[in-house]
Structures are given as C-alpha cells and as structure tokens.
Amino acid sequence: MKLTFVSLSLALGLVLTGPVLGAGDNVEINPPAEGSVNREDGLAAWDRIYEVASHPRCANCHTGADNRPMWSGPSYGRARKHGMNVNAGESRIGAEFVLCSTCHAYRENLHDVPHAAPQVAMNWQLAPVEAEWFGKSSEYICNQLRDPERNDGRDYLALAEHLDHDLILHWAWNPGGGREPAPYDLQSHVNDILVWGVAGYPCVND
Amino acid sequence: MEFTVNGEKREADVEYDMPLLWVLRDELGLKGTKYGCGVAQCGACTVHVDGVAVRSCQLAAGEAEGSDITTIEGLGTPETLHAVQEAWVEHQVAQCGYCQSGQIMQAAALLDQDPEPSDEVIDIVMSGNLCRCGTYPRIRAAVHTAAKKLQEA
Amino acid sequence: MGRLRTIGRRSFLIGSAAVMGGVAFGTYMVQAPHDNPLAKDLAEGSATFNPWVLISPEKITLIAPHADKGQGVSSAQAALIAEELDVEFGQFEVSFGKPDPAYWNHAMSEEGLPFKSTDDRWAVERARATMGGALKVMGMQGTGGSTAMADSFHKLREAGAAARETLKLAASNRTGVPVSELKTANAAVQLPDGTEIKYTELAGEAAQIEPVRFVKLRDPSEWRLIGKPMQRLDILGKSTGTLDYGIDVEIEGMVHATICVNPRQGGVMKGYKENGAREMRGVIDIVEITNGVAVVADNTWRAFQAINAIECDWGDAPYPHEQADHWTAIEDSFVEAQLDDEWRNDGDVDAASGEEITAEYRSPYVAHAPMEPLNAIVQVTDARVDIWTGHQMPIILEQQIAALTEHDVENVHFHNQWIGGSFGHRLELDYIKQAAEIANQMRGTPVKMTYTREEDFAHDFPRHIAMGRASGKVADGKVVSMSLDIAAPSVLGSQMSRVGITVPGADAQIPAGSWNNPYALANFRMRSYRAPELAPVSSWRAVGAPGAGFFFDSFLDELIHAAGADPMEERLRLINHKPSRKVLEEVAALSNWGSEMGENQGRGVAFIESFGAPVAEVIEVTQSDAGIKIDKAFVVADVGTVVDPINFENLVMGGAIFGMGHAMNCEITYSDGMAEQSNYHAHEAMRMYQCPEIVIKGLENGHKIRGMGEPTVPPAAPALGNAIFAATGQRIREMPFHKHIDFV
C-alpha cells in the first residue's frame, strides 16, 4: 500500500513538507560516549527537546487529569479543548466514552486530508497523565521526563527506543493535512534525547 | 475486498484508501449511512465495526476488510425496530433527519457499553454527532427511553 | 407617518413580477383559478377534485407541494387536507407533486411588503392582496419565509372539504340517498344504514362530476387532527435509514460527479491543470463548467479525489478580498446617499432629553451548511431534462434550467426530493445549474453531482453582514428615546440578481426584526442604509432578523439597564400589541422572572417579532472560570394556530438552538477573496453538551396562522447576550460571542 500512496501523492502533486523521516521510518540510536557531553550542551539539547515537547503536535495529547485533548497551533486562533466535548477518560483511549479510534482510525499510510482526524498505524490515545506537558514550563517537563516515577521507568536509551517504536510519535513530524509539523525532525530529536541523557539529564533548576 | 455487512458477506473492488462510507454508499448501495463532512466532524456516517462505533468516512476500506459491519439498515428495520429506533420514533426526534442514522448508531453503541447513561455521559458521547436542526433535547430524552426499553427487554 | 403614500418606491415583488415576465394582469387573471395539473395525466377511473387530491381505485394521494427540508411540512399539509377529507394517517400517500402555477404561494408576499405584520388596516390588507395577485399570475410556487402554514391553512382544508363533498355527491348519485344524510369517516362515505363506500370505490363516478367548489369549513371545535399531536409521516423512514434524500436517489445508468468552482465567488477560472486526474481510478471525464471544472467518475469519493488533484488558476473576486474591507464598506454606508428607508420616526429622538447612551453592533456572514451537502441529479436528452433534487422554488428552477439547456420549459421536469436541511441554501440554484451543465455535456447519462463539504462552505451564499449604530436616552428610570441605524448589503437584491430579477425599492429585510417590534416608545427612529453588494449573500433562516433583531433588542436592553429598570417590566411597559404583551407575560411566568439567582448566574430576556410571529425568550447562564454555561432557556411564541404541537415544539426548540449556536461561535470571513472556514470544525454551532434544557409554550392569540420555522431564531442571540451581561457585566455587541467570551 505504501507504493500506492507514494504514486498517489505524486499524482496529486503533494509536497510533503518538513521531515525526512515519516511514519514507520526507523531511527538510529547512537548515543555519544559516556562523559563526552557537558552540561551546557546538555541544556542546549534540552531546549530543543522542549521546543518539540511543547509543540502542539505533541503537547495537545499530553494533557492533564481532565483527560481532555487540546486543539491548538497555527490554524487555531486560540488554544481550546478538543471540540465535540471529547473526553479520553482515565483509560486515556476513550474507552469510558467514545474511543479515540472512533475517528482516529488505524491506518497504514498518511491521512493527508486537511482537518480530518489524524491517523497512524496504532491506536490513537493520550499520553499518560503523569506526562502532562500542555502549558507546562520547560523546567517542569524536564524534571518529569527524567523522573522514572513519571516516565514509565525509562532512561535515555529507553526514551529513544520509545520514540523509535511508537508510531504515534513519528506522526508529529509528518502530520499531513497541512498541519505544522513539530520542529527539527525525528532523528534530531532522538539525538537530542541521547545528548541530554549522556550529559546527565540537566534541568535549569539543578 | 470482503466485508460482512449486516450479517451478509459482501465484496467490493476498491482501493485501500477508499473510506468505508463510500464503499457502503456507492459500491454496496446502502444509503442509510450519510456523508456530512468527510473529516469526522459531524458523525452522520457512524456505523459499527466489530461492535464499536466508527466514523465510516475516516476508516480506510483496507482497514475495514474482513470486519463485521453494522449499518443503520442492519440495526433494525421498519418492521423490526431496534430499541433505540423505537425510542427515536416515539420521541419523534428527527426534523430533517439527515444526521439521525449516525445519532442512532452512536446511541446504540453507547447503550451497549453503558446501559444506564447519565446526562453527563450522554453529553460526552453524543457531542461528536452534529445536528443542525437542533434535536438535541429530544435525542437526550430518547436515549433515556431506549435505555429503559433495553433493560426491560 | 404616511406609510401608504411611500409604497411606490418600496421593494414590492410586484415590481419584480413585471420585470420578470412582462406580465400585465387584470382582475380576471387574478381571480381565475389555475388549471388543475393532476387532471392532465389522469388515469381512467381516477378522480381529482383540485390540485391537492387524487383518488384512484387503488389509493388516495394527497399533494403537499411545499418542500420538506425537515420542518415537517409534508405531514402538516397532509393533515390539513385529511382534516376535512376525513381520511386518517396511514390511509393515504403523500406526494410532493409536480411543479405547477396552481401551487402558487398565497402567503409569500408579506415579507417583501413594508408593513408591520401587526398592521391590519384595510389599505394594508388590500396591498397584500394585490401583491398576492401578482404572485398568483406568476404561478410562484415556493417554500420560504415561514409561509407554508399561512399559505396552506385555508386552501388545503378547502381542498379536502371540496373533495369530500364531491365524493358524497357521487355516493348520493349511486345510492339515491340525499347528500344531507351521508357522513364521511376513515376514507369512506357512510350511508344511514351503516354501510360504507370507500372513496377509492367512488373514484370512477366522482370523476364524472363537476367538483364541488365552495364548502363551509368545519369549526375548530370539530377538528380531529389539527392541534393534536401527530406522528409525522417521515419519522419511521428517518429513524431507520430507509428514507431517501436527494443525495440517496439512484437513476439507472447514473454517474457520479463533483465540482470545483472559483471560491472567489463569481470570479472566473483562467485555466486549470489536470495533474493526472484524468488517469486516476474511476475517472470518466473532466469537463469545464461556468467558473470551474467538474470531474465525472464511477464513485463519489473517486470524483472527490480527482477534483482535489486538479489545480485551478482562479480570477479575482468581484468584491473586496479581505474581510476588513467588507466592514469598511459597511461603515462607509451610513451616509444620506445610501439611506434605503426611514422605517420609523416617532416623536423626536434628537429633542428628547435624558442621559445619552450610544453603541455599535455587528453581525457576521454565517453559512447555511445544511447536513446534507448540496447535490442534484440531472439527465439531459435532446427531448427533455429531468432533475432530481430538493429545492424550494420549483418554477424558477425549471425556467432557469430550460434557459441553460435550451429546452422548452414544458420539457423540463423537476422531481422534488426530501431535503436534509436547507436553512435557505436550497433557495439557490447554482448546484443544480452546475449539475445541468455537466449533464448537458454528456446527454443521455444521468449525472449525480455532489458537493464536498468544503465546496459547500466555499460556495455558500452566506447570511449578509450588517452593522447597527444605536443611540438612546434614559431619564427617571425609563427609556425615553431610541435611534437605530442599520447598514447592510441587500440580501434580496443579491439573491434575486442571480435569477435575473432586479428588485426596486428599499430592502425590508435590512431592518427586519427591529422597526416592526410593537413598542410604543415615544421617540423612536429606525433607518436602514444600503451597503454596496459585497460577497454574494442569501436568505439564511430568518434572513434579516437575526442580525437586526440582535442589534435592536440588545441595545434596548442596554438602555433599560442604564435607566435602572427591570428588563422585563420595562419591555412590558413599552409594548402595545396585545398578543405580543401576552408572549412576554407568559415567558416571565414560565421562567419565574425576578426570582433569586445564584452567584455568577444571570438571566436575559429578548422579544422579537418576525414573520408575523411574536416570540420572547429567556435564557439563564452561569459564569465559571472556564467560561459561560447556558443553563436553561424558555421560549414562548404566538403562531395564531398550532397545527401539530409536537412539530411546533421541535421547530421552536430547533430555532432557539440554531440562534444560540450561531451567536456563540459561527462566522464566515473572507481572506484572499475566499471563505476561510471550510468545514464544521470552524463553524460548529451548538453541540449536544452545550444545549440547555428548553421549556416552551405556544400561544394562539394572534388572528392569523404563522409559520414557526424561523421566528424563534432571532430572539436567541440577544437573549443570550443579555443573560451574559446580567451574569458578568460584559456587554457583547458582536456575533459570534466567542470572540469575546468562552463557552463551556
């Protein structure tokens, strides 16, 4: 089906903007040598990570205990709760009310229709409530992301693996439908995670 | 591709990307499922796929292949109404009625998972189904009536 | 003021009648009945008594010529005939019928006339009759302006009664029993001995008799159907997915098409690149149409895919490309040269003394966006044209398509269909012309053209924008003067220009819902200014009144608050029309007006008369950190006679919800000449979670029957705005309100 999609894209004259890596692409996980990254470079990497984490393509589904996704970004005048009174429930996949997948269906290729429900080849969902990012400061997210209690026990390598495997994350750099992708690209983001981890997970409050 | 639609095996020669909605409407001749927005904003195209409410305008045919699909025509017929449809008739919910296939399918799915939904739950579950005539108060009442019917059945 | 003296320069459709058909009509033409269209192809053994009743040996068919857009008018029309014909639901079929001058709308003339609906002086009634005569000669069949019940109420009961009496005559001829001893019930004539002769059995004999013409209608006390709850005829079909709307109709050999027309409306297409669209799966052809291009395919979605691949080079729009410039054009229209009319000038607003308040109000473009995207099936052959779709103006439709395909109008056949909402969009003809243009290029093949939702938004003719400039004075706890100037483009002018009709005179819809409200304010001036045509606009549910009524009632509320008076009591002090006063009193009682409210809560009232129906609404809201929650709404409306209380309640609630929802969050804005809103995510209106409990009451004090499709829309926005002010102290003078306040 990939081939069909590529040829269709060409036929449609679509220009896929931004990322080199798209949904389903593999990333390379090559961390710098232990001790080779200083705190300053680690913080610089963190700043870029924060730009990604706070971007609407990521933060809109990293919301808090009200279990409400957000709609925000350049195409919205103001940030607002996801329309239609959507509530993902404590399950974070909508099991208590309407499954996210009612609209965000499983799909093998890019759903490149403006304003349609984003879709990837896995179940659409909110991030765990511990990983609340929307509207949070750089310092807050930094401390959350390095806290095994709140990051599902992941070290930087596991975070990078997670970015490699979770296709919903790949979508952020290739969202389709004219949406603004997250900054940088998936590989750069993984590299930044590795740099930040090797530097000892520095946060500004340290 | 093969699908089971309302209990019958159906086949359609369609591309992976064609939304299930258009397979149903233009290939299989099932017109009860409606096109309203094409982007999951209105819910008029709601059907059940393997028992779960799905916006058929968003589900690629290739992903629906092999599934068990129920449309409004399969939920109940004028002669053998589903409890939700009975309630819709009793409350005379419809005005233009164009959104009601989707409303009914979403309500039926809701009552499958929550046999006695509160107004708050109804307001969360049903708010993805747009009605421009403004039948919402009647929909709310009809969902409660349908819940009672199903419990008494 | 000398209203009747100034009629000459008013916007009489009577003027347009002359422009359109060049008709001259005398008393005879106005009084002569139209031919009965059912008589043309009458089968052997069948009888028709008038254009609404057809009885064959097999079945009874009632013709309900008003288009059913969801307002339930098919059932209501049938009920009026059935009431007198003595047939029950289930004993007859209902058909939309074929377009025919015999179905001219008796009631459509009123909204174009410059009179208050409460004005029933003899000369005014004469003008209404004259206007009606013009529409009759034109054979102007149409649905709109909430007129279906007003048009049908007497006419269809008379049709039923005349048919009944003719059937009795046939039974009398057969049995020798005098007509006076015959009774009717359950679609049968009953003889004194209890035997029954079914109407269907009498059809052949009844067909031989000259139909009875004049029959006394039954007293309301004898009504079996009218005023009682009915089960509408379409409810089962609409609850089971088995009722076909226009978009669901299939014609043998049909192909699927969609179009893309310059989103800068009225702009040309300079050229287009197919970009491989012709080679895409299922594509049959790509053809040019006026200002755009169409794809014909074997499946609707494949047509959508291909149209999205095509790249068009669009010409400029014939209106300002940026929204800000539309507003500037409106602002610049408050000048003497563009004064359209002075609708009221009571007392002297300048001389009145008191504390002065001024304010400026705005009402945006808003889309119709009915749930069923516009569509039409057209088949053109050398001999004839057939059209299957839903439309509100069938006669104009057939004329326009005949001109387009160069057929004689007798050979153009429109088959009206169930409509999935209109809100005015199905008064427009573009979508049918586009389908006809495609079908005309592939004669013989039926073409179903379906708009994508995006095309529906891009190519809507939205509600017109408007601005109101208001000033007023308060003294001694009372409102003493009010002046309201409204500037807007003419919706009537824009709409009629697309069917080649020039409308002379002032546009009564610019100030509709303001000057006509029956308030006896000692000093009251109301003027309308005609802005130049901007984006093409069209009638949107309640037309002028949702904008002008919002300006009027919100500003009146401002004055009342400034005076320190109670919003309900001051309105009641000023109102001077009995049924209208009753409406306000009832809504006050229903909402327990004046009772204590919680912290951060507020209630607002609004009263607006439109389409002849006075409506008052009270809305209660609560302010929270997250925004405004609408808690409850109360609606009281007077329609003269309620035909079906269930349908009445549905329409009243639906109108209030429509009014609130669009006031909250809907607008169309233009950038680069194109509507910026492309789908429901950007034009949501109300969703279920925002919908309050709505308590309604219908009154029947008015002396004429009125329609309920539109009049509950206009008071909703000001009632909501007034409630928000009461709860928060924030006065919102611009729709949509969400630009100024959040809603939860």
State the end-to-end distance of chain A: 49 Å
Q: Which spans of chain A of ≥5 residues are poorly predicted at pLDDT below 50?
A: 1-23
- Numbering strands along the chain, what is their spatial order in the largest sheet of chain C? 10-11-8-18-15-16-17
Question: Roughly what is the average pLDDT of chain C, rounded to an integer?
Answer: 93
Q: What would you call the quaternary organization?
A: heterotrimer
Radius of gyration of chain C, in Å, reads 27 Å
Integer average pLDDT of chain A = 88
Q: Tell me the total number of β-strands of chain C.
A: 27
Number of helices of chain C: 18
CATH architectural type of the largest domain in chain C: 2-Layer Sandwich
- At the fold tier of CATH, the topology name of the largest domain in chain C is Aldehyde Oxidoreductase, domain 4
CATH superfamily of the largest domain in chain C: Aldehyde oxidase/xanthine dehydrogenase, molybdopterin binding domain
Enzyme class (chain C): oxidoreductase
Domain Aldehyde oxidase/xanthine dehydrogenase a/b hammerhead (chain C): 240-318
Transmembrane segments (chain C): 12-30
Organism (chain C): Candidatus Rhodobacter oscarellae
